[in-house]
Amino acid sequence: MHFKFQQLCPNVFQNVVLNSSIWNKDVEISKDQRILIHAISGSGKTSFIHYLLGLRNDYSGSILIDGKNINSIDMEAFTEIRRKGISTVFQDLQLFDDLTVKENIAILPEFAFGYDLENAHKMLEDLDIIEKWEQKVGKLSFGQKQRVAIIRALMKPFDFLICDEPFSHLDKLNTMKCTALIEKRLKEEQAGLILLGLEEECSFTEIKTLQL
Amino acid sequence: MMKQLFFKFQNKKQLVLASLGTFLGLFFLFTSLHFLHKIYNYGENTEMLSKNTIVVQKKVKSGSLLGLNSSEFSSQEIEEIRSKSFVEKCDPIRSNTFKVVLQIDDPLIPAFNSDIYVQSVKKGYLDVKTDRWDWDENSDILPIIMPRDFLMMMNNFLSASSIPQLSDNLVLELKINLKIGTRNNRETIHARIVGFTNELSSILVPEEFLLWANQKYGEKDKEEISQLVVKSNDGQFGLLEKYLDEKELESKKSQLIIAKLKSALSVLLSIISIVSLLTVFLSILVLIQYLQLILTKNDYEIRTLLRLGHSSKMLIKVFMKYFVLLFSIVTLSALLAFLPAKSYLQEVFISNGISLEDSISYYLYGALFFVSMVFVFSIFMSTKRRILKTVNT
Given this model, what pLDDT does residue B69 score? Predict the structure, then answer.
């Protein structure tokens, strides 16, 4: 999978002078790359993710996925991209509070090749929240929820993993553990990473930084 | 799991009320449509006198009791009626001049004996297959046509004896004996009912039998003719009725009464059917409102599932499955409630002399198909519209 952004700019920034390496530029990201997009608050970070997922189109310029304009991809094809091509850790996590941790993972439309609920259980153990397996997500702290959201995203098949501030409520140790787990899955899936964060640095290897 | 996510944590009060409304609506719809159809068809295939044919007799006046006015028809009077241009044919109805006792010899009901009269009309006046109405001295079974009044009387007798009443179909299976002649010279004839009539009060037998029995067991020299069967030409029945009125002749009114009764009942049942249909549609509307409420409340869940890669088709399927299952349970319950209600009402009709055909009306299946299609289509369109709206926002 391959992303190409051509003079992409949110409508709200049309008459604003921007110092960005993405907005109003021609940029390409392929699945063998790891990109950290450094974004300060209000720079359009969440909008960018929504554009990538085809959830919004309030922008000028164009986004191409494998050479095809995102706006011309039909609903069924985009469902397939969300199902197998892209996995996302959303900033607001998008978990179901009334379901247990196990159910939140089991509800995925498809698991990665060779993965099942046992693997998710193991990942929870790696991230020190194994005792939360049968607990409702609504009862967890935000940091615990963040780890569940990461595990859910890693359980899917993907060509690109997109993470919007995935470690914002995690301490250094847990961030390291999550990073290691993500690195492992990126290797297994031979997938690219688009990481959006407020910091200019991160502990991922071979990562390139772009300014939003 | 999606079912749990979408429905488990919702308030079910509206759903229960709408389901109850649908159940009651469907129950009344099934019941009213079934009986509307049965009442509409009542008597259609069992009347034995052919089209434009009536039985006439002289009006009874006070003088008749004193012997001043005879109730018999003379040959002259019969010829006069025959000569009219609007009359196709006219013949006397023959009666028995011998004693007849009807005996029901069947394990279905207790022993039943009654003195009766039998009559006969020529074959051409009857809507009965000729081979079923044939009789000669060597025949084992005598075909007879039963007056409905007699059937009603019999059912009243059964009801008073706390025995289930007889439907038309059961009566057709009864083993009946006619004992003819006097005690010293008696013969038992096995008979079988082949149809019913509202036009005559006596049991009808083939003319050949009556001629034979009158000759063999008759107690009178001369047969009295007090009733005639008259068939008018097509489209001239009105002229015949007018003529009968002028001549102070009368026809049996039961046909007219039945027609009026059918008409009144049909109007009543039609109104109930319309009200039931409206109730069903209103309840479906409430169910659709509940569905939309659920879809709105689950906006976040639907959006998230779509973002995880679930297809809109798959989500529509979850909602469809839930509501179609609910509707199927409600419909099945309404059908199960309809069956005993049908049996009960059938009994009530029989005890009032109206024996309706027992099978379930195809009107009911038609209504079931129509309402189900409306429901499935409405639910599908509501869900699809809402989920696609979520996809595109």
Answer: 63
Q: Quick one: what percent of chain A has pLDDT higher than 70?
A: 100
Task: Let me know whether B310 and B328 are in one domain.
Answer: yes
**Residue the block writes with tokens 């290691």:** A180
- Report the DSSP beta bridge partners of residue A193: A34, A161
Q: Are residues B263 and B353 in the same domain?
A: yes
A122 compared with B107, residue with greater pLDDT: A122
Query: Other CB atoms closer than 10 Å to residue A42's CB: what's the count?
Result: 7
B40 with B58, same domain: the answer is no
**Mean pLDDT in chain B?**
83
* pLDDT less than 50: residues of chain A: none
**pLDDT tens-digit series, residues B199-209:** 777 888 998 89
Asked if B311 lies within 8 A of A79 by C-beta distance, the reply is yes
Whole-angstrom distance, CA of residue B312 vs CA of residue A142: 29
Chain A residues touching residue B311 (CB < 8 angstroms) = 76, 79, 83, 109
Which residues of chain A does B306 touch, with a Cβ-Cβ cutoff of 8 Å?
79, 82
* Domain end (from B222, B237, B252): B252
Q: Nearest CA to B287 among B9, B3, B25?
A: B25
Task: Give how many domains chain B has, as a whole number.
Answer: 2
* Res A43: pLDDT: 84
Q: What is the mean pLDDT of residues B112-131?
A: 79
The CATH classification number of A2-92+155-211 equals 3.40.50.300
Angstrom distances, CA of residue B216 to CA of B203, B209, B219 = 19, 10, 9
**Measured between CA atoms, how close is B381 to chain A, in angstroms?**
18
Rounded to the nearest angstrom, the minimum Cα separation between B298 and chain A is 11
Spatial separation of the C-alpha atoms in residues B347 and B343, rounded to whole Å = 6
Same structural domain for residues B245 and B263? no
Pair (B117, B223) in one structural domain: yes
Secondary structure percentages of chain B, helix, strand, coil, to 5: 55, 15, 25
Q: What is the domain range of residue B296?
A: 2-45+258-391
Mean pLDDT value across residues B175-181: 88
pLDDT of residue B366: 92
B315: which residues sit within 8 A by CB, 6+ positions away?
Answer: B2, B302, B305, B306, B387
Same-domain pairing of B30 and B91: no
Residue count of chain A: 212
What residue ranges do the domains of chain A occupy?
Answer: 2-92+155-211
Question: Does the distance separating the beta carbons of A82 and B309 come in below 8 Å?
Answer: yes
Which residue do the tokens 């649908």 mark? B22
For residue B325, name the pLDDT band (cuts at 50, 70, 90).
Answer: very high
Could you tell me if B246 and B275 lie in one domain? no
On whether both B237 and B337 belong to a single domain, the answer is no
Q: In this predicted complex, what is the ipTM?
A: 0.89
Residue type, B205: V
